[in-house]
Structure formats: structure tokens, C-alpha cells
């Protein structure tokens, strides 16, 4: 077969066009990833009804950020069944008029779901509007009436009657108080909570000693009247504030503490259980002279505290802090979960998305929410399993929080619901000893809190071949005296000295008792095994985890929490002191450390006859510290891939060989190919056996493919020359040279684009 003659100049012109076309294709392929994904399908509307202005405007804007964070993630992954989500932000301004206007606008909109409302009292004013229009609402408002009166109302927190049980238990069982006082104002929130708390506290023989009312019209005088009565009653009676106005709460606390009363104070306002609220008191001279003057012995309660939160909540908090420069509040976390539940309901609902089907679509959404009603149908939330019980509320336990020098931490004693009474050995003796408590029809375990810290002294070695690292660190515990609090094991750790235990609880470096808590300090050095993820090697990030667990006491009776005060958390990962333990690792860069309260689950009966016929798993508590290290890829590439980079010129140069050297092309390329294989084998010897292809290997595979390509081009070149088509052979070389360069350039640009954030 003879090829038609082609003019050399014309051929070069064609080659220029070809090179330009290939370059344009390469730029288009790389640019596709930079373009935002669009979706032409009709949107699904969700309304946010929040206080975006007014007294609670800042909190409302923060909640809005949290909801938008999740909705944006869903839209970036294609929305729901191809439909993008559209958020409608409605401002209730924190007033009755604004709330009614926002509710009316939400009902008139195409929204299938509402996420929002921060104020239970205001929500009660519009609850019937939502019920009449079949519009489901997911909120964090706690008043029982909201769900009792409206089957379309759901909450991601326990209802108020369930939450107040924990306050009553704490006063009675931890503070050992048989009396309590209540301070309230005349608003509906107070009027609902005060009698509810009274009923719970007095159900087991408690007594309400005093009920004081704050008069908004004569606030200062009424507060002074309350303080005089409290002083007359003594300093030991705990107070429960049902007041919702944060300014009124502040005024009450300031007056009480300035009167010399250190009595425990509990607040029903979730906002009060935040460090941001505690910092309101820093403006007072007493607080400036003594941190915690007003907030020590001040308690709150919350469905989540970050010092005892699991991995999902900690990762969310860490990412949130990087994005917005602060940690999320309890409300932001729970509204994020509300968005999770709402999106899943919309995904499962049979939606028609037409104006005529609006009410039907809302009903379908409500039914899908109601179907998330037990652990088997639950969703993965930030705080654990997410589902709605028979009262459309969450079953997650409430955590009691206290302030220590304006830092919010878990109180040293908590309570968990005893769900499996059949498995309890000798129920009467557990009740008599006080380990198990009874309130109404419910039983609760007393849960000891152990404040624990892992402080890294030195990370001396990271061995990627064995997926292990060597670390030296301090470990400490502060607990209320539970003898088994330090009965922990490090499942992934071994002592560097053979046949020696990694941790011996009987050999502390230091121990003493302070503020009723036993403190024990240990120094540990060992080798810890992890599973390294090398898919992005050598641009990889490795998470090095040190974790311990208690295998003796179930987590419903003992829990380890992160000692945020002792560890001085949160702090900047760029702090020079934080970098010191990792400075000996020249090829790695410290990116941060994350502490997580861990739960380890077993379905084993462990030979206990009480558990033989139980299907309930047993959970044990623990804690982990995960160090994130980024490989310094530039150093690695300069040391290990420079030979390969130089080697890529060898096959490329054969494309320039004159005719008299054409026979040398294959041997030269094969030599380069063998050298590349030797380099790859040498690098693989430094790595563990993995069942996937690493980023580094794709570079070598490209080199091998280009080498074979050059061999094939050389063979075709010789065939053309033998047929007397020297011009065509030269044109083939020119096209091959351009193609080779474009592939190398494309690989460099592709790796830069994919791993640009990992280059260091």
C-alpha cells in the first residue's frame, strides 16, 4: 500500500494545528474540574425561619451558616435525585409579629420543609399555622407542647420533660440536696418549665423551698428581693433559673454572686451553656480580678459537649473552626443534624414537585420524617444515631455542663438511661448503693466522668513499611475516685522493651487530689500500629492514632472526656510550641491533632449469664489522639523522583536520532525501561503490600507507556525509511516529539491540580 505524497511544509502546518488542538483539549479537560456543577432540574425548596436580626440575630446568622454548610455539600454532589436544594431564608426578628409574618411567608412559599425557630415561646404562636398547612418543621425547641399539639413538628433534641430529669437527678444525687429553689419570669417558657421541674424534683421526696419572680418592669428591685430571700435560706440550696432572657440571667447571677452566695445555679437556657455566654461576665471587675468569680458553680445542660463528643462531631467542629474561625455552638450542631434529617426525608419521599402537589409533597415529607423512628432506621448524625421517638424528639442523653474559669467542661458526674434492666445484676443492691437511680418510671445509671489528656512529647519515627510510629507522651487522668478509671489498654501499642507492658497504672509519675478529683500522671513511650492510606503517596497525609479503652466498666457507667482545660484546647496548630514534638521528622509536616471520645462496642456476652439472652451490645469508653502529618512531597520528589525525571529524556531523545542511529533506539529505550523498573521496585521495597495503585505508580506507568510508545515509533520509522518514505518518517518523529511533550506537560499539570494543596 502506497501513501500519497504530502508536502513537508504542508505536513508541518498540519502538525502545528494538531499540537494546538491537543493543547486545547488538554486545557479543556483540566478546566472541567474547575467549573461549577449545574443542575437544570426544578429545585426543592427548604425554608429557614430564624432570628436573623434583633437581639438574637448573631445566633441566627450562625445557625444559618451551619444549615447552608450541609445544603451546599448536598448540592455539590448533585442534589436530591437530580434536583438542587434551594434555601429560603426568613427573618422572624425575634418578635411575635416577625414570627407570624415569617410563618405566613413559609406557608405561602413552595417550601416542603422548615428548618428553624430558636424561641419556643414564639414557635408556640405559629405552631397551629404549620399544622393546618401540613408543613413539617424540624427544630431544637424543647417545649413538650410543640410536638404534643402538632404532628408535623420534630426536634433533634430531647423534649423539655426529658431534659429536666437530668437536672433534678444532679441536684438530688450529686449535690445531695433535698431542696431547690426556682427563679422565673412571667413568660410562657417559664410558666411551662417551672411546674414541670417542680413535679420531677418532688416526685422522689424533694421539696421546692422558694420560687422567686423577676419583674421585667422592676428588674433590679425584684432581683434584690430574691437575693435577700436566698441569703435567708442559706448558701447550699441549688437554684434553677427558668428565665429565657440572657440579659435577665446575667443580672440575676451578678446580683447573687456579689451578695457572697456561691450556691449552685442551673440555667434552662441552652445559650447559657456556652463559653461565649460566660465571657459576658469578663467586663466586670470581679471577674477580671478572679476568672470564674461569676461562672464557677454555674451549670447548664446540652445534648452535646465537645469534650465528650465522638469523631463525627469533632471533625465537624474542626472543619467549622477552620472555615469560620470559631467552634460551633450546640444549636449549630443540632440544626446541622436537622438538615441531615430533612434532606434524607426529602430523598425518601415520593415527591411530584408541581404547584398542585404542594400539600401532598409536604405530607409525604412529614411521613418520611416520621419513618425515621428507631435505631434500625436511624441516620448518622454528628452526635450519634439520629432518629425521632414517639414524641418526635431525640433520645440522646443530656450532658450536664459546668464552668471552670469560664471554660465549659463536662460535670464530673453524668447520667445515662438504663435501657436493659434484665441484665442488671442485683437491681435492689444497685439502687441501694446509689449506682442506679430511679425517677418516675425511668432508671438511670450514675456515670463517672474521667478527664483524660494525651500530650505528645516527641514523635520520633514514622515507619511506612510497617505502618507504625514511635511516640513519647504524657497521659493523665482526673476522676472522682473510681478505682477502675485507669484500667485501660492501648490496643494498637507495644512497649519498645520486649515482654514489658506499655502502661502500668500502678506506676504514676505523680499523683494527688485536688478539688475532690484524683490526679494521676504517666509517661509512656511505645510503638503504635496504624493502617496507612498510601493511595496519594507521595502526596499523602497520614493520621497517626494513639487510643486507649477501658474493658472493665461499660460506658453507661464510666466515660472518658477530653481534658480541654489541661490540654489548653482549642489552640492554633501553627503555635511553635505545638510543632516542637514533630520537628525531628524532616520529611513530614505537622498539620494538627484531634482528640476524640471513643466508644468501643462488643456483642459478646463475655460469659456473663445475665447477658446470654440479651441482644443489646455492650459499649466501653475510651479516648484517642489522632495526629495528622503531611508528607513533605517536594523533598521526597527531589530525592526519589529526580532520577526518573532525568530518565524521561532518554526515550524522548531517541526521537531525534538520525537514520544512522535508528538501530540504537530500541536498546537505549529498553535500558531506560529496565532502569525505571529498578527504581520502582526500590521505592516499593520501602512500602507495605497494598491492594491498590498509588499515585506514584501512575507516574512510572506513564513513563513505561511512553517508553513503549517510543519503541513502536522507532519500528514504524524504520519501516517508512525502508519503503523510501523518509519525509513521512521525519514527520512521524515530529508528531511523536510534540505528543511526548504534551503528555509530560499534561501529567505535571494534572498532578499539580489534584495535589496542589498537598505540596509542601
Could you characterize the architecture of this molecule?
The protein is of the alpha/beta class and 760 residues long. The chain has 4 domains: 43-158 and 311-393, Response regulator (Rossmann fold, 3-Layer(aba) Sandwich), CATH 3.40.50; 160-302, Response regulator (Rossmann fold, 3-Layer(aba) Sandwich), CATH 3.40.50; 449-607 and 615-631, Neurotransmitter-gated ion-channel ligand-binding domain (Acetylcholine Binding Protein, Chain: A, Distorted Sandwich); 635-758, Up-down Bundle (Methane Monooxygenase Hydroxylase, Chain G, domain 1), CATH 1.20.58. The protein contains 21 helices and 26 strands. A hairpin with a 4-residue loop joins strand 11 and strand 12. The chain is globular and about 110 Å long. Residues 1-9 and 32-39 have low confidence and may be disordered.
Throw out a few tags for this protein.
Rossmann fold, 760 residues, Acetylcholine Binding Protein, Chain: A, alpha/beta, 4 domains, 8-stranded mixed sheet, 39% helix, 21 helices
The profile of the biggest β sheet is: 8 strands, mixed
CATH architecture of the largest domain: 3-Layer(aba) Sandwich
Q: Helix/strand/pairing class, anyone? A: alpha/beta
In angstroms, what is the radius of gyration?
33 Å
CATH class of the largest domain: Alpha Beta
Indicate the low-confidence ranges by residue numbers: 1-9, 32-39
Strand content: 15-25%
User: How confident is the prediction overall: mean pLDDT?
Assistant: 89
Strands, count: 26
Indicate the overall shape.
Answer: globular
- How far apart lie the N and C ends? 55 Å
For CATH, the homologous superfamily of the largest domain is named as Response regulator
The number of domains is 4
Task: Give the helix level as a range of percent.
Answer: 25-40%
CATH topology of the largest domain: Rossmann fold
Tally of contiguous helical segments: 21
